[in-house]
Protein backbone atom coordinates (compact mmCIF):
# COMPACT_ATOMS: atom_id res chain seq x y z
CA UNK A 1 0.00 0.00 0.00
CA UNK A 2 1.41 3.38 -0.81
CA UNK A 3 1.13 6.45 1.32
CA UNK A 4 -0.93 8.74 -0.91
CA UNK A 5 -3.35 10.78 1.07
CA UNK A 6 -6.85 11.41 -0.19
CA UNK A 7 -10.09 12.72 1.23
CA UNK A 8 -10.97 9.19 2.31
CA UNK A 9 -7.66 8.36 3.93
CA UNK A 10 -7.42 8.55 7.65
CA UNK A 11 -3.85 8.93 8.77
CA UNK A 12 -2.92 5.91 10.76
CA UNK A 13 -1.66 6.44 14.26
CA UNK A 14 0.25 3.19 13.79
CA UNK A 15 3.89 2.45 14.27
CA UNK A 16 6.10 5.40 13.59
CA UNK A 17 7.35 5.45 10.04
CA UNK A 18 4.90 2.89 8.71
CA UNK A 19 2.57 4.17 6.01
CA UNK A 20 -1.14 4.65 6.64
CA UNK A 21 -3.66 2.46 4.88
CA UNK A 22 -4.70 3.94 1.56
CA UNK A 23 -8.42 3.36 1.67
CA UNK A 24 -8.98 4.43 -1.95
CA UNK A 25 -6.51 1.79 -3.09
CA UNK A 26 -8.17 -0.79 -0.87
CA UNK A 27 -11.60 0.08 -2.28
CA UNK A 28 -10.31 -0.50 -5.80
CA UNK A 29 -9.85 -4.15 -4.86
CA UNK A 30 -13.60 -4.56 -4.18
CA UNK A 31 -15.57 -4.44 -7.44
CA UNK A 32 -18.95 -4.80 -5.72
CA UNK A 33 -18.54 -1.46 -3.93
CA UNK A 34 -18.47 0.46 -7.19
CA UNK A 35 -22.14 0.44 -8.07
CA UNK A 36 -25.28 2.46 -7.58
CA UNK A 37 -28.16 1.24 -5.45
CA UNK A 38 -31.44 3.11 -5.82
CA UNK A 39 -29.66 5.83 -7.76
CA UNK A 40 -26.96 6.46 -5.13
CA UNK A 41 -23.45 5.11 -4.80
CA UNK A 42 -23.58 2.07 -2.54
CA UNK A 43 -22.61 2.40 1.11
CA UNK A 44 -22.13 -1.10 2.51
CA UNK A 45 -22.43 -1.14 6.31
CA UNK A 46 -23.53 -4.77 6.76
CA UNK A 47 -20.07 -6.18 7.21
CA UNK A 48 -20.90 -8.07 10.39
CA UNK A 49 -23.30 -10.15 8.29
CA UNK A 50 -20.75 -10.74 5.56
CA UNK A 51 -17.84 -8.76 4.16
CA UNK A 52 -17.32 -8.07 0.47
CA UNK A 53 -14.61 -9.96 -1.39
CA UNK A 54 -11.39 -8.45 -2.78
CA UNK A 55 -10.09 -9.20 -6.27
CA UNK A 56 -7.42 -11.71 -5.13
CA UNK A 57 -10.21 -13.85 -3.64
CA UNK A 58 -12.35 -13.54 -6.77
CA UNK A 59 -9.34 -14.30 -8.97
CA UNK A 60 -8.48 -17.35 -6.88
CA UNK A 61 -11.98 -18.77 -7.43
CA UNK A 62 -11.66 -18.24 -11.16
CA UNK A 63 -8.13 -19.63 -11.28
CA UNK A 64 -9.15 -22.69 -9.35
CA UNK A 65 -11.85 -23.64 -11.82
CA UNK A 66 -9.79 -22.71 -14.88
CA UNK A 67 -6.50 -24.32 -13.93
CA UNK A 68 -6.78 -27.03 -11.31
CA UNK A 69 -10.31 -28.24 -10.56
CA UNK A 70 -10.13 -31.83 -9.35
CA UNK A 71 -11.19 -33.81 -6.33
CA UNK A 72 -8.58 -33.72 -3.61
CA UNK A 73 -6.48 -36.18 -1.60
CA UNK A 74 -7.32 -39.30 -3.61
CA UNK A 75 -6.32 -38.55 -7.20
CA UNK A 76 -2.98 -39.64 -8.68
CA UNK A 77 -3.08 -37.13 -11.53
CA UNK A 78 -1.56 -33.68 -11.81
CA UNK A 79 -4.72 -31.61 -11.35
CA UNK A 80 -5.61 -33.54 -8.20
CA UNK A 81 -2.14 -32.80 -6.86
CA UNK A 82 -2.49 -29.09 -7.61
CA UNK A 83 -5.94 -28.87 -6.06
CA UNK A 84 -4.80 -30.79 -2.97
CA UNK A 85 -1.76 -28.57 -2.55
CA UNK A 86 -3.88 -25.40 -2.86
CA UNK A 87 -6.46 -26.76 -0.42
CA UNK A 88 -3.85 -27.72 2.15
CA UNK A 89 -2.09 -24.37 1.68
CA UNK A 90 -5.19 -22.72 3.11
CA UNK A 91 -5.00 -24.99 6.16
CA UNK A 92 -1.43 -23.82 6.75
CA UNK A 93 -2.47 -20.16 6.25
CA UNK A 94 -5.18 -20.51 8.85
CA UNK A 95 -2.76 -22.20 11.25
CA UNK A 96 -0.41 -19.24 10.89
CA UNK A 97 -3.26 -16.72 11.10
CA UNK A 98 -4.47 -17.96 14.50
CA UNK A 99 -1.04 -19.28 15.59
CA UNK A 100 -2.19 -22.85 16.15
CA UNK A 101 0.58 -25.30 17.05
CA UNK A 102 -0.02 -27.57 14.04
CA UNK A 103 -2.14 -27.61 10.91
CA UNK A 104 -3.83 -30.87 11.89
CA UNK A 105 -5.74 -28.83 14.49
CA UNK A 106 -7.49 -26.88 11.71
CA UNK A 107 -10.77 -28.42 10.50
CA UNK A 108 -12.66 -27.02 7.52
CA UNK A 109 -16.40 -26.49 7.91
CA UNK A 110 -19.21 -24.61 6.14
CA UNK A 111 -19.05 -21.78 8.67
CA UNK A 112 -19.34 -20.91 12.35
CA UNK A 113 -22.78 -22.47 12.78
CA UNK A 114 -21.53 -25.72 11.25
CA UNK A 115 -18.46 -25.61 13.49
CA UNK A 116 -20.44 -25.14 16.71
CA UNK A 117 -22.77 -27.97 15.68
CA UNK A 118 -19.74 -30.16 14.97
CA UNK A 119 -18.42 -29.64 18.50
CA UNK A 120 -21.86 -30.18 20.07
CA UNK A 121 -22.44 -33.35 18.04
CA UNK A 122 -19.02 -34.89 18.64
CA UNK A 123 -17.27 -33.64 21.76
CA UNK A 124 -20.65 -32.76 23.29
CA UNK A 125 -22.38 -36.08 22.74
CA UNK A 126 -19.33 -38.01 23.89
CA UNK A 127 -18.71 -35.98 27.04
CA UNK A 128 -21.90 -34.33 28.30
CA UNK A 129 -23.95 -36.44 30.70
CA UNK A 130 -27.13 -36.08 32.70
CA UNK A 131 -26.83 -33.38 35.35
CA UNK A 132 -23.88 -31.66 33.66
CA UNK A 133 -23.92 -27.93 33.06
CA UNK A 134 -23.06 -25.84 30.01
CA UNK A 135 -22.49 -22.08 30.31
CA UNK A 136 -23.09 -19.53 27.55
CA UNK A 137 -23.58 -15.74 27.75
CA UNK A 138 -26.56 -13.47 27.19
CA UNK A 139 -24.78 -12.04 24.14
CA UNK A 140 -24.85 -15.24 22.11
CA UNK A 141 -26.06 -15.58 18.53
CA UNK A 142 -28.72 -18.28 18.08
CA UNK A 143 -25.95 -20.44 16.57
CA UNK A 144 -24.22 -20.56 19.95
CA UNK A 145 -27.46 -21.22 21.85
CA UNK A 146 -29.50 -23.75 19.91
CA UNK A 147 -26.85 -26.52 19.43
CA UNK A 148 -26.23 -26.52 23.21
CA UNK A 149 -29.95 -26.46 23.99
CA UNK A 150 -30.41 -29.49 21.73
CA UNK A 151 -27.50 -31.25 23.44
CA UNK A 152 -28.85 -30.42 26.91
CA UNK A 153 -32.29 -31.78 25.96
CA UNK A 154 -30.78 -34.98 24.65
CA UNK A 155 -28.53 -35.56 27.65
CA UNK A 156 -30.58 -34.08 30.50
CA UNK A 157 -27.96 -31.38 31.06
CA UNK A 158 -28.57 -27.75 32.08
CA UNK A 159 -27.80 -24.57 30.11
CA UNK A 160 -26.79 -21.56 32.21
CA UNK A 161 -26.45 -17.99 31.00
CA UNK A 162 -23.95 -15.30 32.06
CA UNK A 163 -25.92 -12.03 32.43
CA UNK A 164 -24.81 -8.66 31.04
CA UNK A 165 -24.78 -5.16 32.51
CA UNK A 166 -26.38 -2.02 31.05
CA UNK A 167 -23.42 -1.36 28.74
CA UNK A 168 -23.58 -4.80 27.18
CA UNK A 169 -20.58 -6.25 29.05
CA UNK A 170 -20.84 -9.71 30.56
CA UNK A 171 -20.79 -9.76 34.37
CA UNK A 172 -17.67 -11.72 35.23
CA UNK A 173 -18.51 -11.96 38.93
CA UNK A 174 -21.82 -13.62 37.99
CA UNK A 175 -19.96 -15.95 35.65
CA UNK A 176 -17.78 -17.12 38.51
CA UNK A 177 -20.88 -17.87 40.58
CA UNK A 178 -22.24 -20.04 37.76
CA UNK A 179 -19.13 -22.24 37.74
CA UNK A 180 -19.59 -25.51 39.64
CA UNK A 181 -17.99 -28.94 39.57
CA UNK A 182 -20.77 -29.88 37.13
CA UNK A 183 -19.65 -27.26 34.56
CA UNK A 184 -18.36 -29.29 31.64
CA UNK A 185 -18.36 -26.74 28.86
CA UNK A 186 -18.37 -22.97 28.37
CA UNK A 187 -19.16 -21.59 24.94
CA UNK A 188 -18.89 -17.85 24.60
CA UNK A 189 -18.75 -15.30 21.82
CA UNK A 190 -15.48 -13.38 21.37
CA UNK A 191 -17.22 -10.30 19.93
CA UNK A 192 -20.99 -9.78 19.95
CA UNK A 193 -22.61 -9.52 16.52
CA UNK A 194 -25.51 -7.44 17.83
CA UNK A 195 -23.69 -4.96 20.09
CA UNK A 196 -20.02 -5.29 19.19
CA UNK A 197 -18.89 -6.02 22.77
CA UNK A 198 -15.50 -7.73 22.95
CA UNK A 199 -15.70 -10.24 25.77
CA UNK A 200 -12.86 -10.78 28.25
CA UNK A 201 -12.34 -14.28 26.92
CA UNK A 202 -8.88 -14.56 28.49
CA UNK A 203 -10.48 -14.42 31.96
CA UNK A 204 -13.34 -16.72 30.94
CA UNK A 205 -10.90 -19.33 29.59
CA UNK A 206 -8.70 -19.15 32.70
CA UNK A 207 -11.60 -19.43 35.17
CA UNK A 208 -13.25 -22.09 33.04
CA UNK A 209 -10.12 -24.22 33.03
CA UNK A 210 -9.72 -23.82 36.78
CA UNK A 211 -13.21 -25.28 37.12
CA UNK A 212 -12.21 -28.16 34.82
CA UNK A 213 -14.40 -27.09 31.90
CA UNK A 214 -13.66 -27.12 28.17
CA UNK A 215 -13.93 -23.64 26.63
CA UNK A 216 -15.27 -22.94 23.12
CA UNK A 217 -14.89 -19.46 21.61
CA UNK A 218 -17.27 -18.28 18.87
CA UNK A 219 -14.96 -16.03 16.87
CA UNK A 220 -17.31 -15.25 13.95
CA UNK A 221 -17.22 -11.49 14.58
CA UNK A 222 -13.65 -11.35 15.87
CA UNK A 223 -11.49 -13.06 13.26
CA UNK A 224 -11.47 -10.12 10.82
CA UNK A 225 -10.77 -7.54 13.52
CA UNK A 226 -8.74 -8.97 16.40
CA UNK A 227 -5.25 -10.51 16.27
CA UNK A 228 -5.62 -14.13 17.30
CA UNK A 229 -3.22 -16.46 19.06
CA UNK A 230 -5.06 -19.59 20.12
CA UNK A 231 -2.01 -20.93 21.95
CA UNK A 232 -1.67 -17.80 24.08
CA UNK A 233 -5.43 -17.75 24.67
CA UNK A 234 -5.30 -21.44 25.58
CA UNK A 235 -8.90 -21.93 24.39
CA UNK A 236 -9.89 -25.53 23.67
CA UNK A 237 -11.85 -24.69 20.52
CA UNK A 238 -12.01 -21.52 18.40
CA UNK A 239 -14.66 -21.37 15.69
CA UNK A 240 -15.08 -18.84 12.88
CA UNK A 241 -16.29 -18.18 9.31
CA UNK A 242 -14.37 -17.26 6.17
CA UNK A 243 -17.09 -15.08 4.67
CA UNK A 244 -16.90 -12.52 7.47
CA UNK A 245 -13.17 -12.05 6.74
CA UNK A 246 -13.17 -11.28 2.99
CA UNK A 247 -13.28 -14.95 1.92
CA UNK A 248 -16.10 -16.83 0.16
CA UNK A 249 -19.31 -18.00 1.79
CA UNK A 250 -19.51 -21.65 2.77
CA UNK A 251 -16.11 -21.67 4.47
CA UNK A 252 -15.39 -21.97 8.16
CA UNK A 253 -12.89 -23.24 10.67
CA UNK A 254 -12.92 -25.25 13.85
CA UNK A 255 -9.63 -25.01 15.66
CA UNK A 256 -9.34 -27.65 18.37
CA UNK A 257 -6.50 -28.83 20.56
CA UNK A 258 -5.01 -32.05 19.19
CA UNK A 259 -5.71 -34.09 22.34
CA UNK A 260 -9.41 -33.15 22.25
CA UNK A 261 -9.81 -33.69 18.50
CA UNK A 262 -8.15 -37.10 18.63
CA UNK A 263 -10.42 -38.28 21.43
CA UNK A 264 -13.60 -37.02 19.74
CA UNK A 265 -15.80 -39.33 17.67
CA UNK A 266 -16.26 -38.33 13.99
CA UNK A 267 -18.97 -35.89 12.88
CA UNK A 268 -20.41 -37.23 9.62
CA UNK A 269 -19.65 -40.58 8.01
CA UNK A 270 -18.55 -40.98 4.41
CA UNK A 271 -15.54 -40.62 2.16
CA UNK A 272 -12.28 -39.02 3.31
CA UNK A 273 -12.97 -39.56 7.02
CA UNK A 274 -12.23 -43.28 6.90
CA UNK A 275 -9.08 -45.35 7.24
CA UNK A 276 -10.58 -48.70 6.34
CA UNK A 277 -14.15 -49.81 5.72
CA UNK A 278 -15.56 -53.34 5.82
CA UNK A 279 -19.25 -54.15 6.08
CA UNK A 280 -18.62 -55.12 9.69
CA UNK A 281 -16.53 -52.22 10.91
CA UNK A 282 -14.95 -48.91 9.92
CA UNK A 283 -11.78 -47.42 11.29
CA UNK A 284 -11.42 -43.68 11.07
CA UNK A 285 -8.86 -41.42 9.48
CA UNK A 286 -6.52 -39.24 11.51
CA UNK A 287 -7.28 -35.59 12.32
CA UNK A 288 -8.24 -33.31 10.65
CA UNK A 289 -9.65 -35.63 7.94
CA UNK A 290 -11.72 -37.58 10.46
CA UNK A 291 -14.01 -34.52 10.58
CA UNK A 292 -14.09 -33.74 6.87
CA UNK A 293 -16.37 -36.37 5.34
CA UNK A 294 -17.25 -36.06 1.67
CA UNK A 295 -15.90 -33.73 -1.00
CA UNK A 296 -15.33 -30.41 0.76
CA UNK A 297 -16.00 -26.94 -0.62
CA UNK A 298 -12.63 -27.03 -2.38
CA UNK A 299 -12.78 -23.88 -4.52
CA UNK A 300 -14.01 -21.61 -1.75
CA UNK A 301 -11.51 -23.03 0.73
CA UNK A 302 -8.69 -22.52 -1.79
CA UNK A 303 -9.80 -18.87 -2.15
CA UNK A 304 -10.12 -18.52 1.66
CA UNK A 305 -6.31 -18.27 1.86
CA UNK A 306 -6.43 -15.08 -0.20
CA UNK A 307 -8.89 -13.52 2.28
CA UNK A 308 -6.42 -14.31 5.07
CA UNK A 309 -3.51 -12.95 3.04
CA UNK A 310 -5.47 -9.77 2.30
CA UNK A 311 -5.81 -9.17 6.04
CA UNK A 312 -2.15 -10.00 6.63
CA UNK A 313 -1.05 -7.72 3.81
CA UNK A 314 -2.84 -4.74 5.38
CA UNK A 315 -1.86 -5.79 8.89
CA UNK A 316 -4.37 -6.64 11.58
CA UNK A 317 -3.11 -3.91 13.89
CA UNK A 318 -3.60 -1.27 11.19
CA UNK A 319 -7.03 -2.61 10.27
CA UNK A 320 -8.06 -2.54 13.92
CA UNK A 321 -6.76 1.02 14.37
CA UNK A 322 -8.55 2.25 11.27
CA UNK A 323 -11.81 0.54 12.20
CA UNK A 324 -11.51 1.99 15.71
CA UNK A 325 -11.29 5.45 14.14
CA UNK A 326 -14.38 4.73 12.02
CA UNK A 327 -16.19 3.55 15.15
CA UNK A 328 -15.42 6.67 17.18
CA UNK A 329 -16.26 8.89 14.20
CA UNK A 330 -19.60 7.08 13.86
CA UNK A 331 -20.36 7.46 17.56
CA UNK A 332 -19.70 11.18 17.32
CA UNK A 333 -21.69 11.73 14.11
CA UNK A 334 -24.64 9.52 15.01
CA UNK A 335 -25.02 11.12 18.43
CA UNK A 336 -26.11 14.26 16.52
CA UNK A 337 -29.20 12.41 15.23
CA UNK A 338 -32.24 13.48 17.29
CA UNK A 339 -33.74 10.66 19.37
CA UNK A 340 -30.94 8.21 18.60
CA UNK A 341 -29.93 5.91 21.44
CA UNK A 342 -26.94 3.59 21.22
CA UNK A 343 -27.62 -0.01 22.22
CA UNK A 344 -24.43 -1.48 23.64
CA UNK A 345 -21.81 0.91 24.97
CA UNK A 346 -19.12 -1.48 26.13
CA UNK A 347 -15.61 -0.01 26.39
CA UNK A 348 -14.04 -2.67 24.17
CA UNK A 349 -15.97 -3.10 20.94
CA UNK A 350 -15.41 -4.25 17.39
CA UNK A 351 -16.53 -1.76 14.74
CA UNK A 352 -20.27 -2.18 15.21
CA UNK A 353 -22.81 0.48 16.19
CA UNK A 354 -26.27 -0.70 17.15
CA UNK A 355 -28.93 1.87 17.83
CA UNK A 356 -32.63 2.64 18.14
CA UNK A 357 -34.41 5.87 17.21
CA UNK A 358 -37.21 7.08 19.44
CA UNK A 359 -40.52 6.94 17.59
CA UNK A 360 -39.20 5.29 14.41
CA UNK A 361 -39.27 1.52 13.91
CA UNK A 362 -35.94 -0.05 12.92
CA UNK A 363 -37.55 -1.70 9.90
CA UNK A 364 -38.62 1.71 8.54
CA UNK A 365 -35.11 3.07 9.15
CA UNK A 366 -33.56 0.16 7.24
CA UNK A 367 -35.96 0.52 4.30
CA UNK A 368 -35.44 4.28 4.06
CA UNK A 369 -31.65 3.93 4.26
CA UNK A 370 -31.74 1.33 1.50
CA UNK A 371 -33.63 3.82 -0.65
CA UNK A 372 -30.66 6.15 -0.06
CA UNK A 373 -28.22 3.43 -1.16
CA UNK A 374 -27.08 2.58 2.39
CA UNK A 375 -27.07 -1.07 3.47
CA UNK A 376 -27.48 -1.71 7.21
CA UNK A 377 -28.93 -4.60 9.19
CA UNK A 378 -32.15 -4.24 11.14
CA UNK A 379 -33.98 -6.55 13.51
CA UNK A 380 -32.95 -8.92 16.27
CA UNK A 381 -29.67 -10.01 14.61
CA UNK A 382 -30.39 -13.65 15.52
CA UNK A 383 -30.05 -12.73 19.19
CA UNK A 384 -33.68 -12.81 20.33
CA UNK A 385 -32.91 -13.66 23.97
CA UNK A 386 -30.52 -10.68 24.14
CA UNK A 387 -33.11 -8.33 22.63
CA UNK A 388 -35.70 -9.60 25.11
CA UNK A 389 -33.27 -8.96 27.96
CA UNK A 390 -32.69 -5.41 26.69
CA UNK A 391 -36.45 -4.91 26.41
CA UNK A 392 -36.36 -4.10 22.69
CA UNK A 393 -37.57 -5.82 19.53
CA UNK A 394 -34.51 -5.02 17.50
CA UNK A 395 -31.98 -2.41 16.51
CA UNK A 396 -30.43 -0.82 13.46
CA UNK A 397 -26.86 -2.02 13.11
CA UNK A 398 -24.10 -0.43 11.06
CA UNK A 399 -20.92 -2.51 10.99
CA UNK A 400 -17.72 -1.22 9.45
CA UNK A 401 -14.93 -2.77 7.50
CA UNK A 402 -11.55 -1.56 6.33
CA UNK A 403 -12.97 -0.33 3.00
CA UNK A 404 -15.50 1.98 4.65
CA UNK A 405 -14.86 5.72 4.98
CA UNK A 406 -15.79 8.66 7.18
CA UNK A 407 -17.53 10.18 4.13
CA UNK A 408 -19.83 7.16 4.11
CA UNK A 409 -20.54 7.62 7.82
CA UNK A 410 -21.45 11.24 7.05
CA UNK A 411 -23.98 9.93 4.52
CA UNK A 412 -25.43 7.59 7.15
CA UNK A 413 -25.75 10.40 9.69
CA UNK A 414 -27.33 12.76 7.15
CA UNK A 415 -29.65 10.00 5.97
CA UNK A 416 -30.78 9.31 9.51
CA UNK A 417 -31.40 12.98 10.20
CA UNK A 418 -33.60 13.13 7.09
CA UNK A 419 -35.53 10.05 8.18
CA UNK A 420 -36.08 11.46 11.66
CA UNK A 421 -37.27 14.76 10.22
CA UNK A 422 -39.74 12.97 7.96
CA UNK A 423 -41.00 10.26 10.29
CA UNK A 424 -41.14 11.74 13.74
CA UNK B 1 -71.80 4.82 -8.68
CA UNK B 2 -70.54 1.28 -8.38
CA UNK B 3 -67.28 0.69 -6.56
CA UNK B 4 -64.34 0.32 -8.89
CA UNK B 5 -63.22 -3.25 -9.44
CA UNK B 6 -60.10 -4.75 -7.92
CA UNK B 7 -58.22 -4.44 -11.19
CA UNK B 8 -59.41 -0.89 -11.85
CA UNK B 9 -58.04 0.18 -8.48
CA UNK B 10 -54.80 -1.71 -9.05
CA UNK B 11 -54.38 0.09 -12.37
CA UNK B 12 -54.97 3.45 -10.65
CA UNK B 13 -52.28 2.68 -8.09
CA UNK B 14 -49.83 1.58 -10.78
CA UNK B 15 -50.43 4.86 -12.59
CA UNK B 16 -49.90 6.88 -9.39
CA UNK B 17 -46.61 5.11 -8.72
CA UNK B 18 -45.44 5.57 -12.31
CA UNK B 19 -45.00 9.26 -11.46
CA UNK B 20 -42.04 8.34 -9.25
CA UNK B 21 -40.19 6.86 -12.23
CA UNK B 22 -38.51 4.24 -10.07
CA UNK B 23 -37.30 6.70 -7.41
CA UNK B 24 -37.41 4.33 -4.44
CA UNK B 25 -36.97 7.12 -1.89
CA UNK B 26 -39.88 9.12 -3.24
CA UNK B 27 -42.04 5.98 -3.30
CA UNK B 28 -41.28 5.24 0.33
CA UNK B 29 -42.04 8.83 1.30
CA UNK B 30 -45.41 8.49 -0.42
CA UNK B 31 -46.05 5.14 1.29
CA UNK B 32 -45.15 6.78 4.58
CA UNK B 33 -47.71 9.53 3.91
CA UNK B 34 -50.30 6.86 3.16
CA UNK B 35 -49.55 5.24 6.51
CA UNK B 36 -50.49 8.43 8.30
CA UNK B 37 -53.86 8.54 6.50
CA UNK B 38 -54.84 5.01 7.53
CA UNK B 39 -56.74 5.21 10.83
CA UNK B 40 -55.11 3.37 13.74
CA UNK B 41 -56.81 0.15 14.69
CA UNK B 42 -58.42 0.58 18.14
CA UNK B 43 -56.26 -1.03 20.84
CA UNK B 44 -58.92 -3.65 21.68
CA UNK B 45 -58.39 -5.18 18.22
CA UNK B 46 -54.61 -5.39 18.63
CA UNK B 47 -54.76 -8.78 20.25
CA UNK B 48 -52.98 -12.04 19.59
CA UNK B 49 -55.77 -13.59 17.48
CA UNK B 50 -55.63 -10.70 15.01
CA UNK B 51 -51.85 -10.58 14.88
CA UNK B 52 -49.92 -11.60 11.78
CA UNK B 53 -46.29 -11.96 12.70
CA UNK B 54 -43.44 -11.04 10.42
CA UNK B 55 -39.76 -11.30 11.21
CA UNK B 56 -39.44 -7.56 11.88
CA UNK B 57 -42.88 -6.00 11.91
CA UNK B 58 -46.28 -6.84 13.33
CA UNK B 59 -49.57 -6.55 11.47
CA UNK B 60 -53.07 -6.74 12.94
CA UNK B 61 -55.98 -7.52 10.62
CA UNK B 62 -59.71 -7.79 11.14
CA UNK B 63 -62.35 -8.47 8.50
CA UNK B 64 -66.07 -7.71 8.66
CA UNK B 65 -68.74 -9.19 6.42
CA UNK B 66 -71.72 -7.39 4.93
CA UNK B 67 -73.67 -9.71 2.67
CA UNK B 68 -71.23 -10.95 0.06
CA UNK B 69 -68.87 -8.01 0.66
CA UNK B 70 -65.83 -8.10 2.93
CA UNK B 71 -64.36 -5.04 4.68
CA UNK B 72 -60.91 -4.95 6.22
CA UNK B 73 -59.28 -2.91 8.93
CA UNK B 74 -55.60 -3.27 9.66
CA UNK B 75 -52.61 -1.69 11.37
CA UNK B 76 -48.88 -2.25 11.76
CA UNK B 77 -46.15 -1.19 14.16
CA UNK B 78 -43.97 -0.07 11.24
CA UNK B 79 -44.90 2.89 9.08
CA UNK B 80 -43.87 1.47 5.71
CA UNK B 81 -45.76 -1.77 6.25
CA UNK B 82 -48.78 0.27 7.34
CA UNK B 83 -48.59 2.37 4.19
CA UNK B 84 -48.50 -0.76 2.04
CA UNK B 85 -51.43 -2.15 4.00
CA UNK B 86 -53.43 0.96 3.18
CA UNK B 87 -52.90 0.14 -0.51
CA UNK B 88 -54.13 -3.42 0.03
CA UNK B 89 -57.18 -2.14 1.86
CA UNK B 90 -57.87 0.33 -0.94
CA UNK B 91 -57.78 -2.54 -3.45
CA UNK B 92 -59.56 -5.28 -1.53
CA UNK B 93 -61.77 -3.78 1.19
CA UNK B 94 -65.42 -3.50 0.14
CA UNK B 95 -65.06 -5.99 -2.69
CA UNK B 96 -67.00 -9.20 -3.18
CA UNK B 97 -65.50 -12.08 -1.25
CA UNK B 98 -65.39 -14.23 -4.35
CA UNK B 99 -63.40 -11.56 -6.21
CA UNK B 100 -60.98 -11.07 -3.31
CA UNK B 101 -60.29 -14.80 -3.03
CA UNK B 102 -59.55 -14.97 -6.76
CA UNK B 103 -57.69 -11.65 -7.05
CA UNK B 104 -54.34 -11.50 -8.76
CA UNK B 105 -52.52 -8.70 -6.95
CA UNK B 106 -50.31 -7.69 -9.83
CA UNK B 107 -49.92 -4.12 -8.59
CA UNK B 108 -47.39 -5.19 -5.95
CA UNK B 109 -44.60 -6.15 -8.37
CA UNK B 110 -45.72 -3.44 -10.80
CA UNK B 111 -45.05 -0.66 -8.27
CA UNK B 112 -41.70 -2.24 -7.39
CA UNK B 113 -42.70 -3.60 -4.00
CA UNK B 114 -42.33 -7.31 -4.68
CA UNK B 115 -39.45 -7.36 -2.20
CA UNK B 116 -42.18 -7.24 0.44
CA UNK B 117 -43.76 -10.48 -0.69
CA UNK B 118 -40.55 -12.24 -1.63
CA UNK B 119 -38.58 -14.73 0.36
CA UNK B 120 -37.17 -12.15 2.80
CA UNK B 121 -40.08 -12.56 5.21
CA UNK B 122 -38.87 -9.38 6.82
CA UNK B 123 -42.29 -7.95 7.44
CA UNK B 124 -45.83 -9.18 7.94
CA UNK B 125 -46.97 -7.91 4.55
CA UNK B 126 -46.74 -11.19 2.65
CA UNK B 127 -48.55 -13.05 5.42
CA UNK B 128 -51.18 -10.31 5.43
CA UNK B 129 -51.88 -10.74 1.71
CA UNK B 130 -52.42 -14.47 2.25
CA UNK B 131 -54.61 -13.89 5.31
CA UNK B 132 -56.85 -11.37 3.51
CA UNK B 133 -57.46 -13.79 0.66
CA UNK B 134 -57.94 -16.71 3.02
CA UNK B 135 -60.52 -14.78 5.08
CA UNK B 136 -62.40 -13.98 1.86
CA UNK B 137 -62.29 -17.59 0.67
CA UNK B 138 -63.53 -18.91 4.01
CA UNK B 139 -66.30 -16.31 4.22
CA UNK B 140 -67.33 -17.05 0.63
CA UNK B 141 -67.54 -20.76 1.36
CA UNK B 142 -69.67 -20.09 4.46
CA UNK B 143 -71.97 -17.90 2.39
CA UNK B 144 -72.46 -20.64 -0.18
CA UNK B 145 -73.35 -23.27 2.44
How would you describe the overall organization of this protein?
The complex is a heterodimer of chains A (424) and B (145). Chain A has helices spanning 23-28, 55-68, 78-98, 112-127, 146-155, 172-178, 201-210, 230-233, 258-263, 298-314, 316-334, 362-371, 384-390, 406-423; strands at residues 36-37, 40-41, 43-44, 106-109, 133-137, 158-162, 183-189, 214-218, 237-241, 252-256, 274-277, 282-284, 340-342, 352-357, 374-375, 377-379, 395-399. Chain A is an alpha/beta fold and 424 residues long. Chain A has two domains: 23-34 and 315-423, Aspartate Aminotransferase, domain 1; 58-312, 3-Layer(aba) Sandwich (Aspartate Aminotransferase, domain 2), CATH 3.40.640. In chain A, the strands form five sheets. In chain A, strands 4-10-9-8-7-5-6 form a seven-stranded mixed β-sheet, sandwiched between helices. In chain A, a hairpin with a 2-residue loop joins strand 1 (36-37) and strand 2 (40-41). In chain A, helix 11 (316-334) runs parallel beside helix 14. The longest helix of chain A has 21 residues, at 78-98. Mean pLDDT of chain A is 94; it is low at 1-17. By secondary structure, chain B is an alpha+beta fold. Chain B has a single domain (6-40, 50-144), classed as Alpha-Beta Complex (Sufe protein. Chain: A). Chain B has a four-stranded antiparallel β-sheet. Classes of the chains: A alpha/beta (424), B alpha+beta (145).
Concise synopsis of the structure shown:
Chain A is of the alpha/beta class and 424 residues long. Chain A has helices at 23-28, 55-68, 78-98, 112-127, 146-155, 172-178, 201-210, 230-233, 258-263, 298-314, 316-334, 362-371, 384-390, 406-423; strands at residues 36-37, 40-41, 43-44, 106-109, 133-137, 158-162, 183-189, 214-218, 237-241, 252-256, 274-277, 282-284, 340-342, 352-357, 374-375, 377-379, 395-399.
Amino acid sequence: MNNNTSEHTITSSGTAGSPALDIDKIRELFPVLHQEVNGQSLVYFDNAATTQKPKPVLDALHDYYTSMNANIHRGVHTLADRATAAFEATRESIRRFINAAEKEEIIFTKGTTDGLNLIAATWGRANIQQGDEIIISALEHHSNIVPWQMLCQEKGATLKVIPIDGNGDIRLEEFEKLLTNKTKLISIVHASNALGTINPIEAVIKKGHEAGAVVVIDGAQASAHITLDVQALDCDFYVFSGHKMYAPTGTGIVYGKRSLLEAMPPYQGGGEMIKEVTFEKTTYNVIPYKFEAGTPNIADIVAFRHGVEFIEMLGRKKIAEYEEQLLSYAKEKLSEVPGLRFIGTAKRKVSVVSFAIEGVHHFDVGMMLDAKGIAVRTGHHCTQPLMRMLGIEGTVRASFSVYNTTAEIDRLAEGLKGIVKMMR
Amino acid sequence: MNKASINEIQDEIIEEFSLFEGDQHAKLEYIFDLSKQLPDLPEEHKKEENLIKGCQSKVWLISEREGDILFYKADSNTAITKGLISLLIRVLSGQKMEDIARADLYFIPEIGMSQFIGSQRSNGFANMVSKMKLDAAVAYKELQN
